[in-house]
Amino acid sequence: MAQIRPNKARAKLKAGGIVNAVGGLNDPDMVDMAGPLGMDAVWFEGEHGGVDYRDVSDLTRACDLWGLTSIVRVGFNNANVIYRTLDRGAQGIVVPHVNTRAEAEAAVDAAKFAPIGHRGMFTSRQGYGVADYLKVANDQTMLIVLIEDIVAVKNLDDILGVDHIDVFLVAPSDLAQSMGHIGDYGHPEVQKVIDEAAAKITKAGRVAGHISTTESVPGLIRRGFRFFLANSGDWLARGAQQYLAAVQAARK
Question: Which pLDDT tens digit goes with each residue over 136-150?
Fold first, then answer.
């Protein structure tokens, strides 16, 4: 009997480790290029990017080949959107703008089969050949909610009371906008709220997540974050700058 593919990123978090996901690789060939680099997961963008249901199977299949956890950010906290994305093969779901306990509960209800939730009864691509899929799928399904509005921070105690959520990711740009500091998530008021949210999440024994860069990730780890999303576009830009600088230096 075939066994379900393990969700390695979820297991790493549960063991107390740090998980690194990379975004911006919305093509199976790009996933193949990233496969040997040592990342834990690939984040596919279905809210702001071009990823649609038809894309999910091939994208997640490429992740399966490399043992990477496939994570898809969906556009809505909607039951069908969530479980259809899982049915197409995603191992993890990111739900945007979770601002209340009820919204967090709705995300869990959509992502998990009974007895935890009411995910639509269908065998995911991850379940082909897995006879006990409906019994083991919940343990291999990762759920991330975005804390990206100041109202969510104000309701954070209630949201943290919802079980079966793996990561509470504090999204700085939208948070800054909701606080009246659009485009300036480095503002001291925004950073203070992020610190307070991270402290509250970790004190509750839950996992805090954040957007990361090479420069920011050491400080974020010290602040208690354990799930990180890095943007491959930042790496490309940095590599291009270094390359062009080397060309210019060689011409002098």
Answer: 999 999 999 999 999
Return d(Cα 174, Cα 198) in angstroms, integer. 16
**69: which residues sit within 8 A by CB, 6+ positions away?**
7, 8, 9, 10, 21, 40, 41, 42, 63, 91, 92, 142
pLDDT surpasses 70 at 198: yes
Answer yes or no: is 1 within a domain.
no
For this structure, is 48 an active site residue? yes
CB 73 within 8 A of CB 148: no
Question: Which element (helix H / strand E) includes 173?
Answer: helix 172-178
Sign, CA dihedral 217-219-225-226, equals: positive
Where in the sequence is the domain holding 232, given as residue range(s)? 8-251
Angle subtended at Cα 208 by Cα 183 and Cα 166, rounded to the nearest 5 degrees:
120
pLDDT in tens, 61-111: 999 999 999 999 999 999 999 999 999 999 999 999 999 999 999 999 999
For residue 120, tell me if it sits in a domain: yes
> In 3-state terms, what secondary structure has residue 226?
coil
Number of domains in the chain: 1
> Within 10 Å of residue 161's Cβ, how many Cβ atoms?
12
Could you tell me the CA-to-CA distances from 195 to 115, 128, 219, 223 in Å, in that order? 35, 43, 11, 7
Q: Is residue 3 part of a domain?
A: no
Q: What is the DSSP letter of 5?
A: P
Here the CATH number for the domain that contains residue 198 is: 3.20.20.60
Residue spans of beta strands (DSSP E) within the chain: 19-23, 41-45, 69-73, 92-95, 142-147, 167-170, 208-212, 227-231
The per-residue pLDDT for 237 is 95
70 belongs to a structural domain: yes
- Among candidate residues 48, 97, 187, 210, the one labeled active-site is 48
